[in-house]
Amino acid sequence: MNGVASLSAAHRVAVFGGTHGNELSGIALVGLWLRDGAEIRRRGLEVRPFMANPRAVQERARYIDTDLNRAFTPENLSFQGEDLPYEVKRAQEINQIFGPMGSPDAYDVIFDLHNTTSNMGCTLILESSNDHFNLQMVHYIKHAVAPVTCSVLLNDHPRLHYSTTRSVAKHPIGLEVGPQPQGVLRSNIFESMRLILKHALDFIEHFNGGVEFLPCTVEVYRVVERVDYPRDSNGNISAMVHPDLQDCDWEPLNPGDPMFQMFDGRTVQYKGDCTVYPTFINEAAYYEKQQAFVMTKKETLNANGIKVTKS
Amino acid sequence: METVTMLPLTRVAVCGGTHGNELSGVYLVRELQKNDGGKAEEQGGAAETVSVLKVLSNPRAVQQCRRYMEKDLNRCFTNALLSTPAGKETLYEIVRAQELNALLGPKGSPEAVDLVCDLHNTTSNMGLCFISYSQCNWIGPHIFRHLQREISSMPMRYIHLGGPSSEAYSLESVGKCGFGMEVGPQPHGVVRADIFSAMWDGVRLMLDWIRRFNAGTTFEGGEVEVYTMVKKMDFPRDPETESITATIHPELQDRDFRLLCPGDPLFLSFTGETQRYEGEEPLYPLFVNEAAYYEKGIALWLARMTKMAFPPIRVKAGAE
Q1: Cβ–Cβ gap B191/A185 under 8 Å
Q2: ipTM value for the complex
Q3: Domain ranges of chain A
Q4: Cis omega (within 30 of 0) on the bond before A100?
Q5: C-alpha distance from residue A263 to each of A231, A268, B32 (Å)
Q6: Hey, is the C-beta of B190 within 8 angstroms of any chain A C-beta?
Q7: pLDDT tens, position by position, B137-155
Q8: What's the CA gap between B145 and B140, in Å, rounded?
Q9: Nearest CA in chain B to A185
Q10: Per CATH, which fold does A229-288 belong to?
């Protein structure tokens, strides 16, 4: 479809920080805006800053019992019982406040602010290739920050897709900025995230105000597979990301290229039969999730034109 | 300077995982343990003169990939804490410190190992640093100089902790001699190949120096630039909530060991104000924006740099 789709205005917008309690940019931004929200105020929409996992933020840990950003499964959200893991309880609370997921009452947009130890720069994460509002938004943001690059990661993989905090909303967007160590607040990373969000809110304000966004194309990196570290019989990693791959997020990995370096110096090569684009290379939080990096393929998506439905 | 002679270094400990999420040392010690009898101890025919203990200092924290379980292990080696009677309520790391003291010490006694090398990582851009309380009979500067001549992949600095060594709280103070080997920048919970390589080279070259020393080599004297830690600075914080209201200024971030002069930017607040260094003395920043120090109220340390001469050394002739 290449016409202009008519979509409802996005009046209820939330900005989540602290989904992971040790990813400090979002925590600092949401903390700031909870005290003084002037910067995120826009005409025609309510923008609500929200600390998603306050106990984890308090402990400066990724999570208390279980990863909140994997907890929004239908089973968890509907589970009735006592002694639930903290994050499952929290997921149910968040679903009540900002959802229910899938219902007309759910928030229009949730931005979820994350950091990564990987050298991903500014990355926007989408969960669907058919959300034309989101596609237009990322297109707008990419243009607004140019020549600085903002990559778009699409994870709609049937097996590798996961139930994110932001998926409660009709239009979920992940903002991932790195590299930043867990538990560290870097000024440049903080300001980058702030800038992306500023443009995102500008977009929504323009859209709600009647601006028409013409059909366009968006280049995305679509997740195709995840790759674990070589491990020994005890489950410990037996190799590291190769120095030639380290920090090379979004760059092509060709068959035969170095992928891992064993502790004794030997190289393990990428043996796939086509070029892929790795990202989330050496993310600290993914060692326990059996992931050294994720492989993506470049794709160009078509975004329909959109215009707000006049009420 | 006159040549100093010393007894050979026959027992050396290489410790990793003192902080369970500083992964270079964890994997290095595991690799050394795997290679036991293998390449880490190759001698090329000669009898091995040094026995190397490979120690995973805080196994529970390593297992959970956390800095510590209940208390920072690397603050548990004061004489007071080492002699506290341990009961069921005693914090895990205090008990563990006493176990390590029995294994590698006792601290201050003739049974203590000759040298403790404790492996650490930092999120700060510090390259490879030796951190020590004392010159320990000049062994530290000599090993440092040996590494400096061979390692070109990253800058190296020698850091001296201020204060009397009688109040030393860290693991390396258990040995007769000791230093921390700190390599960064690396996020906690991550192992980077380049950082691991540098640390591996550091440990390999240290053992190489020790074997040559024990074999009778005379090492000429020299001079080393020493950074002595003088004072620490915290982040600006909200007086009510204590949460930080500014972070390290972009002009200071990643610029460890670059002289900070009065008036230079220190912090940039979330509302855009620059806070500048108001001290009178230009000092060298280090441990700038180390993740683990946020909870200790430290945004950076400041150090004075002096040049220290060290004498030639040689093993005592006729010693065992």
Answers
A1: no
A2: 0.95
A3: 4-220+302-308, 229-288
A4: yes
A5: 11, 11, 10
A6: yes
A7: 799 999 999 999 999 999 9
A8: 9
A9: B247
A10: N-terminal domain of TfIIb (2.20.25)
